[in-house]
Amino acid sequence: MSNKEMVSTETENKGQRKVFVPNKLLECLPRSSSLPNERLRWNTNEEIASYLISFDRHDEWLSCSLKTRPKNGSIILYNRKKVKYRKDGYCWKKRKDGKTTREDHMKLKVQGMECLYGCYVHSSIVPTFHRRCYWLLQNPDIVLVHYLNVPSPEDSGKCSPLMCTLSDRHDTLRWSRDDLQSQLKPMFHSIKCSVGSGEFSIEELVQHILDRQRTKPQPRTHTCLCSTSQ
C-alpha cells in the first residue's frame, strides 16, 4: 500500500503516537468517543477498528500498568512496547511442549479490507473463558485486549460446571484451592454457573474441580526396579 493511500493522525503530544490506516477505512468508520471498560459480548470487527483508530485522541484510554486477572468482560487498551500484557496472571492452554501458550492467529476484515490482526487464547481451567487481542496491521503497537466467558447457547447465558473441568495438560501441575479461587472468581464476574436447574457457587465449583483432580491419576514416570532389601 502506497503512502498516498494511507493517512496518519497524531496527538498533540509532539507526534509521539501515530495511527496509520487506509483512507478507505477512515471513510467508512466513525471515530469512537468512548471505550467501554466492560462488554459481555464480543466486539464486531467494525467496533474494534473504530476504537483502534480513535485512541490517539484519548490519552486516558491507554492503560500504563498491567492488569492482573481482569474480570470477565474487561476491555483494556495497551501499548505493547510498554506493557507485557500477556503476563496477566491467568493460566492459558499450552502447546504440546507444555511450555508455550497455544495461540490462534488470524487476519480480520472490515468492509472487505484486511486491516486487523487477532490473537486468541483459551483458559486451561474453564474452556469457555477466552482472551482476544486485536491490533491494526499498520499500527501493531496498540493492542485491544478483551476477556470474556462465553457459555454455550444451550446454557442460556450460564456456564455449566460440568464444562469447567481440568483440561488435559502436558505437565504435572496440580491446582490448589487458593489458586483455583483466584483464577475462577474474575472469570465468572457478571455470570452464573449452573447445571440443570440448580446454580453453583464459586466455592462449589472449586471443590468440583479439586475432586476431579484427585481422581485423575498422576502421570507415570518410570517403574522402580530397586529392591527393598537394597
UniProtKB/TrEMBL annotation:
Name of one Pfam family that matches: CG-1
Keyword Amino-acid biosynthesis: no
Every Ig-like domain range: 140-230
SMART domains: CG-1
InterPro entries named in the record: CG-1_dom, Ig-like_dom
Domain CG-1: 31-156
Location of the protein in the cell: Nucleus
Family annotation (PROSITE patterns): CG_1, IG_LIKE
Alphabetized UniProt keyword annotations: Nucleus, Transcription
Protein name (Swiss-Prot/TrEMBL): Calmodulin-binding transcription activator 2
